[in-house]
């Protein structure tokens, strides 16, 4: 029986319900149902869009636009060279080579400082496919409909202050970091950051998904085996050896997702408590945003 | 003439039979997962979650008593599939029968294809009503006689015996699918059939079990780019080169096997643009097609998505020619239906013998008859309350909101655990088989 009071179509609760469904599907008899999980991932994506829109609107309700501009000016006075050094320090262990991380960092830096880095960009190997995806996502408009959707689609975005800002950003890529409230826009290859807390944090956040993906398999295998409910990692393998390259990411993607949302959305923390016991939600939502569209599709990458 | 021409609303439906356990405590293995009439309508097969197939046979009509409609009685029961374990992938393979499809009858025996998630089997159902007696070398109980004791010879003869129906697996088609099989469809050439899983469609020959041809493959190079899966597939009833498959995105692709060996490129794409005013969190889920069926005449096809039934003309790709709302009152309840997983229910649909009426199931053990010619629809219920012989089914109405009239049921009172996912219509007569969770109801046209 359906409750007389229709449940509040709340993006946040939908996200947690969806994640729970994906989590439960791993232990269902008959194996993971690809169709159902694909549909759940669509709901997740839709809910995420709405949630991001709502948060975005909230940010701009809280802060006056002039305040944003003031901070913006302060940022532009920072020495650009500091940014390059920070980036290079962290490239060392990323994929084991400076090249791929340079491509990620390089894309984030203003164009004037990008020139030396660009020459070092190598085509990504199979291992760095996720990294390539992330750099794509952060640097270019990931999914045009994703951000334009806040203008076009009739989601419940009530704040009218929202629209003028929207129009300004319609042809830019904008990322909102929910923890630090950093609004990052990439326009014509330039990175602008508003209301920044720490630039270093941002770069770190952008890079660590790449690191985490490679370490995922090893990290999560041990985590998962501790929990009696979890099935062995190889259970999720659908394909034969031709799929072996991306196989390490398969099951870990789901747990990755769950932990990403476990700490990123405060409303979910209590509901995800049982999950967090097993998967110490070490990841911050920065990674969720840094990996943008990639994680949505990762759900079905079994 | 048997009422093949009768519309859904001219016809009054009355209860005929119900099969299955009466008590409300449903054993999971007894949940019916597929229902299918054979080509003559004489046989009705059901498959259940426990891997069992039960075949009912229509008794020959008693011509002296035309009021007494023929009944379906159990003809054969056999275990088609058993649970398996894939050790390589650490996956359990469910024994649930996903689909049964009958082959056209060629000789005295009947043949059907039954499939679970991974394996398709061809079963031969044959009758034995005679047995040989009078062997020279064997006793009646089978023991061999000592040759030295034989002094005379006789010719063994066949003597009648009680009818015995035997089901034997004649072919087992394994290892054709990596993903879960959702459809099988026998070709009109009676030699080949297709099987479809989430990402691929294979073409088999009925005689050959160790090879199949892959004709459609929508698996992306990178699984992270997956955006849609195959949900159903069917061969055209007359054109042996044509088949269609539906997707989770609400599109149907028609493929012609003459065009190329791999039919990844469709010949026709049937898609209706989404109504932007109906956009919601669940738009992708409710647009996913759960069933596709060609009309008997081969000119139309019907698709079922969560809230509606659409009839497509094969010559028009940009929109369906008819759309029927099955239970539009559920549109405002999608969130709750998502929470309790009902939104993922896969309803099937079927045509009547002359393609004038279509039928599909709903919740609360309701099912809907949609009359195409008269543009009328009716909601009926399969319930134990209306189980008296020849009791006429009363139309049901659901009250979407506001004041509930007498005899109406409100949306919030609907029982979403009682769902009719599988229905079948006799190919010639107005006899329908409707499967509730663990019961099979047979309704017939009221004969005056």
From TrEMBL, chain A:
It comes from the Eukaryota. This is Immediate early response gene 5-like protein. Belongs to the IER family. The gene is LOC107587377.
TrEMBL record, chain B:
One of its GO terms (cellular component) is protein phosphatase type 2A complex. Gene3D superfamilies: YVTN repeat-like/Quinoprotein amine dehydrogenase (2.130.10.10). Signal peptide: none annotated. It comes from the Eukaryota. GO terms for molecular function: protein phosphatase regulator activity. InterPro entries: PP2A_PR55, PP2A_PR55_CS, WD40/YVTN_repeat-like_dom_sf, WD40_repeat_dom_sf, WD40_rpt. Keywords: Repeat, WD repeat. The keyword Transcription regulation does not apply. It holds the Pfam family WD40. PP2A consists of a common heterodimeric core enzyme, composed of a 36 kDa catalytic subunit (subunit C) and a 65 kDa constant regulatory subunit (PR65 or subunit A), that associates with a variety of regulatory subunits. Belongs to the phosphatase 2A regulatory subunit B family. This is Serine/threonine-protein phosphatase 2A 55 kDa regulatory subunit B. It comes from Sinocyclocheilus grahami (Dianchi golden-line fish). The gene is ppp2r2ab.
